[in-house]
Amino acid sequence: MKFNTSTTVPDQDFLPFALFVQGAIVCCFACFSYYRQEMPSMLFYMGLGTAIIISFVIYKVFESRYLANALLLVTLVIGFIYAILIILDPSSLIWCVTALPILIVLCHYPKNLYLFATLFGAAALVLFQKASIDHSDTPSVSTILQFLFTTLVVGIITFSASKFRIKSLAKIEDLSSLVIKIKAEDVLTGLKTRRYIESCLRDRFLITETLTSAFSVIIADLDNFRSINERYGHSAGDSVLSSVSALLKKTLGDECVFGRWDGNAFIIIIPHDDTEATLLMAEVLRERISRLKLKIQGDTLTLSFSLGLVSSAKYHDPDDLLLHAENSLYQAKNTGGNNVVMG
Fold first, then answer.
1. What is the pTM of this model?
2. Domains of the chain (ranges plus CATH)?
3. What is the per-residue pLDDT for 12?
4. What is the average per-residue pLDDT within 128-150?
5. Burial, 229: exposed, middle or buried (Cβ in 10 Å; 0-12, 13-18, 19+)?
């Protein structure tokens, strides 16, 4: 599985977490600065908090993840630069360390790597330059080294954790897609499963109740299929089902939903209730199946189809419709098979 780290879509799970956590952190720093009567720092954190609140409103009220994500990124980047250039006290350095993991996760690889390198390099340059001037309010060289080392370690850990998390999410997404595919697609024939068809029928009835647009259903069954299994074995029967499925895929249009119903039975949902068109489609299928010649163990098999048709206009729920479709199929088979019966 190829791991793609170049996505630019905001992390839908991390964004609300980042807003909440960074908002709480900024609030704590603002209270701490107020307690220590450090007004410039308090105003700085209040400004950050205001921007974070606006980001939260954009995310929650206007449901714009991209804009909220962008505003939070810009806020943290500007705050990081301002803290290094202007505030430059121990609490602001600690806040910078808390902001970096959120920046790394929100920005996505490789942009977050470039951003981290830029901020780290700028911080090192500014801090060492100020330390060389020897201002009394400038942190000592040892404090600067500790800050840069902590920042580097936090960055490396966050990059590793973010990469591992994205890989895990990608694996989970692949597994979820595989499970959905297994549930929706029959392994042998490649057609839709019964569960999927039943779900489609329920949805169709909901649409019918809203738009009063009826549809048709065909249930088709291979005649004398049991004798093929008994004479040639189940592998031969599987081959026959695969060939019939391929013919259905080739014959039916994209507007139809069709799948394997049960054993050697197939079901087709037609998005209209035009009786003549549905009968014509059923006859075409029956005729093409009868012309299908299959070589099995040196013998040439001739197949036949029995089909039962119904329109949803006559029924009120999927179960009632399917019951009458199967009754129509049984009538077709009881009259000798290779026949079409409209219910």
1. 0.59
2. 14-181 (no CATH), 194-342 (3.30.70.270)
3. 56
4. 83
5. middle
